[in-house]
């Protein structure tokens, strides 16, 4: 699936119960991120894919935290689902991955409700391809098959 350039120069404020993420996509290589609750600021290279009309998968890496952030955002409804993944260190140098999910909305949309639970992904296959970034973190690529478009 080719990257989408439709988010270039877009401006999105993502609102969740715990934090506000100020996300401006001024170019396809840098995306300023401002998380108000922790006063973090920085830029992150990202990739955006239009997986359905006006629905985007946005991925970026937070190298200082060894975390990968994936957002699914509907520009039609204002709904956003965010996932943050990272590693737990456990005994004897082994690592385990963790992922937390959070609902959010795009500021300015009225009456946004979280994505409803669904059983549509049961029995779908996900292929993860791990790619080393600066020797410590990974990114994942999700096949179109997950979205039923393969």
From TrEMBL:
Entry superkingdom: Eukaryota
InterPro entries, sorted: MoaF_N
Domain Molybdenum cofactor biosynthesis protein F N-terminal: 2-89
Protein name (record): Molybdenum cofactor biosynthesis protein F N-terminal domain-containing protein
Source organism (scientific name): Aspergillus calidoustus
């Amino acid at each position: 699936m080719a990257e989408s350039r439709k988010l270039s120069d877009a401006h999105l404020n993502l609102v969740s119960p715990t934090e506000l993420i100020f996300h401006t996509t001024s170019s396809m290589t840098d995306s300023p991120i401002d998380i108000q609750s922790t006063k973090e600021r920085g830029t992150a290279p990202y990739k955006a894919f239009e997986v359905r009309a006006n629905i985007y998968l946005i991925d970026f890496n937070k190298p200082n935290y060894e975390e990968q952030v994936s957002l699914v955002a509907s520009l039609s409804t204002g709904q956003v689902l965010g996932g943050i993944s990272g590693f737990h260190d456990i005994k004897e140098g082994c690592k385990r991955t963790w992922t937390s999910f959070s609902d959010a909305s795009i500021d300015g949309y009225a009456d946004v409700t979280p994505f409803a639970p669904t059983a549509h992904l049961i029995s779908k296959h996900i292929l993860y391809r791990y790619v080393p970034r600066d020797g410590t973190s990974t990114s994942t690529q999700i096949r179109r098959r997950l979205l039923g478009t393969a």
